[in-house]
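Input sequence (107 aa), recorded before submission:
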Amino acid sequence: MAINVRTEFVNTATIRTIVYVYNDNEVLTAPTNVVVSIWNPSGTNVVDEEDVVATGLVEVGKYEHYYHKNASADAMAAGQWRGEVLIIDGAGADAVVSPCSFSFKVK
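Predicted structure, token format:
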């Protein structure tokens, strides 16, 4: 299974994480679940294993998550942010969990 994660800034307080999940034949596929976690530059977990929503707009296997800092439009903290996406295929003791780390820098 291949995982491709991309991030983009929607504005100074919002980051969009886009996750593409491919099977062994390099075809976009739908796993059982996709979750994301994000840590700010000081190491505080600001997103703790939230479910990622399938876009369903164009293709199977494309998921996106939006993190907005808070209710105001204050800019996100400058520095190196890090994240992790868990691709979960199956359930219970038989589930296969594939992690994928990513990071982005806020200036």
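Checked by second reader. The mean pLDDT is 89.
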